[in-house]
Design goal:
5-stranded parallel β-sheet, Rossmann fold, about 15% strand, 13 strands, single chain, alpha/beta, 16 helices
Length: about 425
């Protein structure tokens, strides 16, 4: 990026990624160490996107306490207030730019409260990184601080570590596919059980579902850990440090025919299986047919993709197989995930850069903020990423593996044909 500033930013912050991570842990209270407005913005942002209540608390640091308080007092007061009404299994403490600039000792503050409340802490300043890195850093912190070291593995136990862009239904679908190979599958975090849009008994003050703290503690004996997305590859390596016997499979994406093939092949080789489950074979044939059906609409068309790096790769992979031309991608952060992207024009930028590219393109794939631009230039829009305020059911969008890739290709082809 050569500009000295961002105009109409695409970027989201690290604390927002950390919030999503802690929402995937059962009976967890995410605690943002920063100003009240930071937590309020994130709460409204995700409430509108998921159409579900979002559990979050804040230390409510202001201009006075930021100067006279070393951080310990505001954190301990926040934990005291939280535990007056509810008893979280875990408090996930994460920072913002202001408290990081102050240099608050959140590790020390967590240590002082260890006898009162189980806590996990993570440094997520919003002046660096973004949504993906905040999510990944929080997973690493949870593994380092909670998972117990083991020397043996459970041959029937598998752990999925998804990147932040995978929707709750995608996490669920991937878990189901892994389970077809005889594994009892866990996900860290597991948004498929908390932000999947299920109707609970009542609105709770804590996260409504996900992986439990006890299950997290015992993840060290997983026979397999599967990381999906460049941003979370290191998380698998951190878990492997808890048990050197664990096998780590990493995939930058599992969307599209060839990438999904590699995913299933790895599991087949590990389990020494020569033929996968019949439903897997059937969906592969459906995707082959979908590629044939959609290439008439997509072949030769120009698309601009503007979202998070891991999601860009997952979007571009099946589209390229269907013959579409990836004219350009606009990403909020640099990432090695884009090193092998089939596109020569990769821009770290904002929606101003998107607008400059859109006039000679046929399609934009971005969050709902791209809608104004597609109306202006009369282009097709497929909404992906955060946020999507104008549609319901965001948690149920499935673009991954054979099944999801079929749905995604049909959606894109229908958008272009119907323009």
């Amino acid at each position: 990026m050569s500009k000295p500033l961002q105009i109409n930013p695409l970027k989201l912050s690290q604390p927002m990624g950390a919030l999503l991570c802690f929402l995937g842990i059962k009976n967890c209270m995410p605690l943002m160490h920063g100003a009240q407005g930071c937590a309020s913005f994130s709460k409204v942002f995700f409430t509108r996107h998921f159409s579900d209540p979002i559990a979050i608390q804040t230390t409510a640091v202001n201009d006075i306490t930021a100067v006279i308080d070393g951080g310990d007092y505001s954190i301990s007061e926040a934990v005291k207030n939280i535990t007056k009404k509810v008893k979280p299994d875990l408090v996930g403490l994460f920072t913002t730019g202001m408290t990081e600039t102050k240099g608050d000792d959140i590790k020390g503050a967590t240590y002082l409260l260890k006898d009162k409340q189980l806590m996990t802490y993570v440094h997520t300043p919003d002046f660096e990184g973004g949504l993906e890195s905040g999510f990944a850093k929080s997973i690493e912190a949870i593994i380092e601080q909670l998972v117990e070291s083991k020397k043996e593995t459970d041959s029937k136990k598998a752990l999925l570590i998804p990147n932040v862009n995978l929707t709750p239904i995608e996490v669920e679908k991937i878990k189901e596919q892994i389970s077809l190979f005889g594994f009892k599958t866990f996900a860290l975090p597991d948004l498929s059980e908390s932000l999947d849009g299920h109707l609970g008994v009542k609105q709770g003050a804590l996260s409504s579902g996900g992986i439990s703290v006890d299950e997290i503690r015992n993840l060290g004996d997983s026979a397999v850990v599967i990381t999906i997305g460049d941003s979370v590859e290191k998380c698998g390596e951190v878990l492997k440090e808890k048990n050197q016997q664990t096998t780590h499979f990493h995939f930058d994406t599992i969307s599209g025919l060839l990438k999904a093939d590699k995913f299933y092949k790895a599991l087949m080789d590990f389990k020494e299986i020569s033929k996968p489950h019949p439903t897997i074979v059937r969906w592969r044939k459906r995707l082959q047919d979908a590629l044939l059906d959609t290439q008439f609409a997509l072949g030769g068309k120009d698309v601009v993709i503007a979202t998070e790096p891991d999601q860009i790769l997952s979007i571009a992979t099946p589209l390229k197989e269907a013959g579409i031309n990836i004219k350009a991608v606009v990403t909020p952060n640099k990432s090695s995930a884009l090193n092998n992207l089939p596109c020569d024009n990769i821009i770290v930028g904002d929606f101003e850069d998107v607008e400059n590219l859109l006039e000679d393109s046929d399609l934009l794939i971005s969050n709902f903020h791209g809608e104004r631009l597609t109306h202006k230039y009369k282009k097709a829009l497929v909404v992906r990423g955060f946020p999507n305020y104008e549609m319901v059911g965001n948690q149920m969008k499935n673009d991954t593996l054979y099944e999801g890739s079929c749905y995604f290709l049909f959606e894109v082809a229908n958008k272009i044909e119907g323009l």
